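Technical annex, item 7. During the second reporting period the consortium partners agreed on a shared format for inverse folding records so that results from different sites could be compared directly. Each record opens with the tokenized structure and is followed by the designed sequence. A conforming record, contributed by the partner at site C, is shown below for reference.
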């Protein structure tokens, strides 16, 4: 369903609880803005994808008056939903962290409890069999697991994992890139939330470097180390190499021996697909 909306040239939203006219037919702008903010359409879980997926969304009142589109009404919609303007206007949703995307539906309601998870499938670009009756906790657990496993992650092949039976070895992989390139989102998708039922997760930070780690195959602890990004602007290959060199110097001072580097460009699109962490 998300893809249908995404491929549409434009979509129309009919707000049955919003009117721009009083009983005598006069136009009431203030009343319209108030009822627009409180419309039930913004409280339904499934309408979140109707808002995010289409390129163009037109809003109409119950008396068939056009209120505007999601661009002209963007500031009001941001205030109502808490969704960033960039997401409303078409920036790839993979640029936003997993928890941010979950938070957009925090106060929305569904008839079936499992739809709290199923309505997010398109937003995360994943597929799940719909099992009504499994309950919301199980549905959300399956969704989070699928999200973690569905992103393509390519690490440097120089990582040498220890043979079975050896002691757990620390493996450090740097995640680098400009501000807004999706480093934190990538790490969250690989490692997952603290309350998952998979591998234990630890956090640490030093010299403005944050890391999240997980056990791999019970033999190695893989630490994904997020380095601070630079200001968003076009950079040459030489400038990028200079930035990487400076980050490597910081890692050396922090006694972090990197086995590989993931570098995300400013326009990196963290598309869903593949098998994710299982291929490390």
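Designed sequence (site C submission):
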């Amino acid at each position: 369903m998300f893809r249908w909306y995404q491929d549409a040239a434009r979509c129309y939203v009919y707000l049955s609880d919003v009117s721009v006219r009083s009983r005598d037919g006069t136009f009431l702008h203030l009343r319209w803005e108030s009822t627009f903010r409180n419309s039930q359409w913004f409280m339904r879980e499934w309408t979140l994808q109707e808002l995010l997926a289409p390129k163009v969304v037109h809003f109409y009142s119950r008396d068939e008056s056009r209120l505007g589109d999601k661009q002209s009404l963007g500031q009001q919609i941001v205030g109502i939903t808490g969704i960033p303007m960039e997401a409303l206007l078409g920036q790839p949703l993979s640029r936003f962290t997993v928890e941010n995307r979950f938070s957009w539906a925090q106060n929305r309601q569904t008839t079936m409890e499992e739809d709290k998870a199923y309505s997010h499938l398109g937003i995360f670009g994943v597929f799940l069999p719909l099992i009504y009756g499994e309950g919301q906790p199980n549905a959300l657990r399956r969704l989070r697991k699928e999200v973690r496993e569905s992103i393509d992650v390519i690490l440097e092949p120089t990582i040498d994992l220890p043979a079975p039976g050896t002691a757990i070895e620390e493996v450090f992989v740097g995640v680098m890139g400009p501000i807004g390139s999706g480093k934190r989102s990538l790490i969250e998708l690989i490692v997952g939330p603290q309350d998952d039922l998979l591998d234990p997760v630890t956090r640490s930070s030093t010299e403005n470097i944050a890391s999240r780690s997980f056990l791999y195959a019970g033999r190695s602890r893989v630490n994904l180390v997020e380095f601070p990004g630079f200001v968003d602007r076009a950079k040459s290959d030489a400038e990028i190499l200079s930035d990487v060199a400076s980050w490597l110097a910081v890692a050396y001072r922090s006694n972090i021996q990197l086995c590989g580097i993931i570098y995300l460009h400013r326009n990196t699109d963290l598309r869903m697909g593949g098998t994710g962490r299982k291929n490390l």
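Residues 237-253 form the longest helix (17 residues). Residues 17 and 39 are 6 Å apart (CA to CA). All partners now use this format for quarterly exchanges.
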